[in-house]
Design goal:
Layout lengths: L17 H11 L4 E5 L19 H11 L4 E6 L4 H8 L6 E4 L4 E3 L14 H19 L5 E5 L2 E5 L6 H15 L6 E5 L2 E5 L5 H12 L3 E6 L5 H5 L6 E5 L8 E3 L5 H19 L1
Parallel strand pairs: 1-2, 1-9, 2-3, 9-10, 10-11
Antiparallel strand pairs: 3-4, 5-6, 6-8, 7-8
């Protein structure tokens, strides 16, 4: 492995395989980049209480570093509502935000009309019914809890002590969602989400691509719903799967703790390139 343009802490390069390092350096050499990141399980570790999720400190630092470079635009693409994403991710100035799996967007400097989410009366009624169903299911199991979202709701089972009981709550929740009109399920890790607005992370990334017009996009994510994001990548784009599981992404890292190495590799290569051009 060469040592050209490796991160300032050279040891972090050993966290990434040679194929990924080469792909990241090639990506970094392109003029305009869009770096899209999932939050939970990618920038932050997965935690039992979703309200306690915070960026891994090294990841937050690397994101700020990238966001400050010319020709690089950073975006969060998350299933979280925008309000929660802003509060917990604390994105740097200028970061673009896709929330609720693409149903909410904050890209104010590029398209002021794109922020927020408005539900039709039918969607509002469907969301209320969904919340009642999920709350009823969660009330019968200690540790289960329901997250209220602008476009729907999610029932979480990560805090249920018994794995079999947690699985049963998800089975019951799926069956209940199947009986509801205008409600669409989204599978996740130890969570079942259902929404009344059909949108996915792939649509969010495609919209960001349209607005930013980058030469290539990098998307990093860990969950089943992130596969919609990987599916829209093409050409010189890069997909990085965080953790285990089948994926469309061409590259993989083991855990959120390695994401900083990915981002710093890009930043270091661009910074070195800028120095050479001066």
């Amino acid at each position: 492995m060469t040592t050209d343009h490796v991160p300032q802490d050279a040891s972090v390069a050993t966290l990434l395989d040679d194929d990924l390092l080469a792909a990241l350096r090639g990506f970094a050499a392109l003029p305009r980049l869009l770096v899209c990141l999932d939050f939970d399980g990618c920038v932050s570790e997965l935690v039992a209480d979703a309200s306690e999720a915070r960026p891994v400190p090294a990841n937050a630092e690397a994101i700020r570093r990238l966001a400050g470079l010319d020709g690089v635009r950073v975006a969060y693409v998350s299933g979280r509502p925008l309000e929660s994403l802003r509060e917990l991710a604390a994105p740097p100035s200028g970061a673009l935000l896709i929330g609720s799996h693409g149903a909410e967007r904050d890209v104010a400097d590029l398209a002021p009309q794109g922020a927020g989410l408005t539900l039709t009366p039918g969607q509002q009624a469907a969301r209320r019914e969904l919340l009642e169903v999920f709350e009823s299911i969660a009330a019968g199991t200690e540790g289960a809890w329901v997250e209220h979202k602008p476009a729907g709701a999610a029932i979480h089972v990560r805090k249920i002590p018994d794995a079999g009981e947690a699985k049963q709550v998800l089975v019951e929740s799926r069956a209940a969602v199947a009986t509801l009109d205008e409600v669409h399920p989204k599978e996740g890790k130890m969570v079942l989400e259902a929404v009344v607005v059909q949108a996915d992370k792939g649509e969010g990334i495609s919209e960001l691509r349209r607005l930013v017009s980058p030469d290539a996009v990098l998307f990093a994510g860990d969950d089943v719903t992130d596969e919609f994001g990987f599916a829209v990548l093409a050409g010189e784009d890069l997909g990085v799967k965080v953790g285990e599981g089948e994926t469309r992404a061409a590259h993989r890292i083991e855990a959120p703790a390695q994401l900083a190495a990915v981002l710093n590799t890009i930043a270091e290569a661009r910074e070195a390139r800028e120095e050479e051009q001066q």
